Amino acid sequence: PPLTAAWAGGLPIPSAGLPPPRSPPPTPRAPAAAAFLRATLRDAVSPVPPLDTVPPAARAAAVRSAAAWAWAGYVAHAWGADELAPVSRSGYETFCSLGVTPIDALDTLHLMGFPREFARAADFVVASLPARLAANCTVSVFETAIRVVGGLAAAADASGDARLGSLAVDAARRLLPAFDTPSGVPRSDVDLAAGPAADVFREASAGTALLAEAVLVPEFVAAARWEARLAVDAGASPTTASAPNILASPLAAASLRSLDAVLANAPEGDSGLLPTTLSVDTGAAEWRERHTVGGRADSAYEYLLKTWLMLRGASDAGVRARGERYRRAWVRAMDVVLDRLVVSTPSGAATYATSDLHEPVAEHLACFLPGNLFAGVSAGAVRGTRAARYRASAAALLTTCVAMGESTATGLPPEVALFLPELRPGHPFSLLRPETAESLFLAHAATGDPAWREAGWRLFVAIETAARVATGGYSGVRDVTVSPPALDDSMPSWLLAESFCYLFLLFDDDAAAKVAGKVLSTEAHPLAQLL
Question: Which one from 93, 107, 298, 438 is the annotated catalytic residue?
């Protein structure tokens, strides 16, 4: 459905000078926001209707309208907070009150063509974030890098707004002390004002980090690129912004040192698989309980490929050679992942990624893997028979990820699925995660097969039907096997940054073309390659 006149005219939002919000913030945040939301609710059909009659050409517009509904709920009820609690119509803090949702959503607003909302959100972030970054608060290095640094850098890349690029540099510099370890593997948490936090890993000793936390090259290279660009604008030599100099800068060098430490310390017997937990002192593997491509490890495997993608177009041969090392590491890893971690049910009806303990368990987080395989084949990371194997495995894995949702009463995939041997939910809640939508977009981009778009539309219909909140926003659900489900009253920032973004890209060829030359981060932020 078309956006309302109120939306097209831009939503009046609270002043950017507001102090950091308390949790929960007042509801509604401003009379103008409440009036806008009422107007949107009156003029829009809820859910986006009739879903089974929306023609393919209108599907991108339907996703765009859903993103507008999610954003309107946040603005009306949680402006300035990290994330929206849509049922209670309030906000809640998950990331030191940095205001993560607008930061994470900036490039989605820009990509979907909401210029006024993008401008107002950018102005708010520019006005409020410096003070929030200076607060004495401990944050996750990983989450802050992928949501804040990546979100700001991508929005700056898309819009050319140097203010956002400068904030990306500031945020990345505040995370840099976490990398000051003997191995280069970063500590899990950092105090934004004071440096590394004393208790950096809540489940173990302070000297342990997770694999996913140790591989953050795209975000830090993107921040380093903006650091160099700003320096050149201020009068530095143009060579400051060359690819070799960017990689040698403290921000990029720290992230690359960490990745190199992971690869150098992977046990020989694992033949390409990476340890799930590492010592920040030595970089060596700890707790050899299992290998996985699910939680704790997923984005590290994803970023082996994407670091190559970020470096492979550089004019400097040394930079390209460094990227080639990461491509080879990705290929070694994927070969062993397909041999050891990808299994099929006895009937052959389902193929899924598990751990090397071969539990009959699949995490929804691991549904990034088919898209990663499709992306590698499309980019030419593998060729010949290996490419054919990767493509066939990706299709089988993605078919199971789709089935994880379509086997439930709501159509939403559970957080964890079991194969005993038939498919059933394990942990039945849904956080509206983006991994299946991501892989569907990458699969369609690689193959052009309309079946992936049809699966994506069914997933969107499930979100609209089960998760849309009548007073604005969307909520995760407590049990995907019950329809209608109970809602968990949370709207993670990744719904706008990733889930709706990937669905929009799946249905909008023009939008997909705009990001075709970019590296989509693990939070779906399009980051420019080095040249």
Answer: 298
Q: Does residue 287 register a pLDDT over 80?
A: no
Of 117, 435, 438, 479, the catalytic one is: 435
Yes or no: say if 520 and 434 are a contact pair by the CB < 8 Å rule: no
Q: 3-state class of 474 per DSSP? A: strand
> Which of 209, 57, 90, 207 lies closest to 140 in space, CA to CA?
209
Known catalytic membership, residue 435: yes
Task: Note if 324 is an active site residue.
Answer: no
Of 486 and 51, which is predicted with more confidence?
Answer: 486
Can the peptide bond before residue 24 be classed as cis, meaning omega within 30 degrees of 0?
Answer: yes
- Separation of alpha carbons 80 and 68, rounded Å: 17
Q: How many CA atoms lie within 13 A of 452 on its CB side?
A: 28
- 81: helix, strand or coil: coil
Percentages helix, strand, coil for the chain, rounded to the nearest 5? 55, 10, 35
Q: pLDDT at residue 52 above 90?
A: no
Judged on CB neighbours under 10 Å (0-12, 13-18, 19+), 343 is middle
Residue 370 identity (one-letter amino acid): P
Whole-angstrom distance, CA of residue 173 vs CA of residue 246 = 14
Q: What is the DSSP secondary structure assignment for residue 78, as one 8-state letter?
A: H
What pLDDT is attached to residue 53?
80
For 455, residues 6+ apart whose C-beta sits below 8 A from its C-beta are 402, 440
- Please give the backbone phi and psi of residue 404, each rounded to the nearest 5 degrees, phi first: -60, -35
CB atoms inside a 10 Å sphere around CB 31: 9
AA identity, residue 171? A
Determine which helix (DSSP H) or strand (DSSP E) holds 210, and give its type and residue range: strand 208-210
Contacts of 67 (CB under 8 A, 6+ apart): 108, 112, 496, 500, 501, 504
Among the listed residues 107, 213, 219, 415, the single catalytic one is 415
pLDDT for residue 293 is more than 50: yes
Tell how strand 83-85 and strand 526-528 pair up: unpaired
pLDDT surpasses 90 at 430: yes
Which DSSP string corresponds to 128-184? HHHHHHTSS-EEEHHHHIIIIIHHHHHHHHHH--HHHHHHHHHHHHHHGGGG-SSSS
What's the pLDDT score for residue 42? Answer: 47
Residue 510, CA atoms < 13 Å, CB-side half-sphere: 6
**CA 363 distance to own-chain centroid:** 16
For residue 356, what pLDDT band results from cuts at 50, 70 and 90? confident
Helix 115-133 / helix 162-175 crossing angle, nearest 10 deg:
30
Look at residue 31 in the predicted model and tell me its pLDDT. 42
Instruction: Kindly tell me the burial class for residue 135, based on how many C-beta atoms sit within 10 Å of its own C-beta (0-12, 13-18, 19 or more).
Output: middle
R_g over Cα of the chain: 22
The DSSP code sequence of 291-313 is --SSTTTHHHHHHHHHHHHHHTT
* Separation CA 514–CA 68 (nearest Å): 20
Q: Would you state the structure tokens that stand for residue 160, as one six-digit string?
A: 């050319």
